Amino acid sequence: MKLSRKFPLNALRVFEAVARHASFSRAADELGMSQTAVSYQIKLLEDILGEQLFLRQPRQIVNTDAAKRMLPNVGTAFELLSEAMMSARQASSETLEIHSSPTFASHWLARNLGSFQLAYPAIAVRLIRVSKITKFDRDPADVAIRWGIGPWPDLDCHLLGRFTYAPMLSPGLAASIGGVKQPADLLKLPLIGAEQDAWRHWFTAMGEPVPDLSAHKRYNYIEQDLCGNAALAGEGVAMLNHIYYPDELASGRLVAPFRTPSGDDIGVWLVYPHNRRNTPRIKAFRDWILSAVAADRAKIEPRAPETAAG
């Protein structure tokens, strides 16, 4: 016997409503069905069972002994199914799994997620640092923070920002060459991650010819948090985003000698599958992070000099 005939859920759902109301019309109203459809489902169930379930009498129907035996267990079964669905929805809404690029995770999200959890105390957060691109059909992430040019057509994409950056170094390292006054002074020091395009963009933004940086190979880091840690340790000059190091700049552990901001086409994006756009926990996180990053950028990122565009 086919499973659909062994457990005809639609017919059982109609039976439970008819038996509870002792009325085909009230059951039809509750279920949003026509009385003809209700009658068809009851006839289907009676054919499967080989038992009559209701006695059709003038102005009323009466449950047969077979219906009376079935009703408690069928009602309990639908209550259990409802509880199972509710439990799944609650578990799904309670935990938000975020996959994030390492620097954004450690230098922005970890510092700011407390305000999200205060605003949404029912949502627990699982934050995972990843260096590879999250594949939503394979990875358990709800959302991801991705670096790139974007947007990506297979995902819902929200640009958090194309953050400004500048060379940053420890004050002790700057003092070791008598201070950094001109862009050329940086070339006297080890440059961290010198193969990154950001260095060439910065020199161009400063109106300087792009120097040959091929000799600066000692600290060929890619992840910005590694570059930042090396700069804090006095090992060299790193090209860092302002939004990630406000505390270090405010305390003087790092200095940014040049105020002209630089940027490029690489952005930081919040991404998730199209079919999850209305998931409550994702909507809550999207609204929060777009607002929080915008407020942080307005407060932290330096403005271009009045003579510069923008």
Automatic annotation (TrEMBL):
Keyword Signal: no
InterPro entries noted in UniProt: LysR-type_TF_proteobact-type, LysR_HTH_N, LysR_subst-bd, WH-like_DNA-bd_sf, WH_DNA-bd_sf
Record bears the keyword DNA-binding: yes
Keywords from the UniProt entry: DNA-binding, Transcription, Transcription regulation
Species of origin: Hoeflea ulvae
Domain of life: Bacteria
Occurrences of domain HTH lysR-type (ranges): 7-64
Alphabetized PANTHER family for the sequence: GLYCINE CLEAVAGE SYSTEM TRANSCRIPTIONAL ACTIVATOR (PTHR30537:SF26), HTH-TYPE TRANSCRIPTIONAL REGULATOR (PTHR30537)
Protein family membership: Belongs to the LysR transcriptional regulatory family.
Pfam families linked: HTH_1, LysR_substrate
Protein name: LysR substrate-binding domain-containing protein
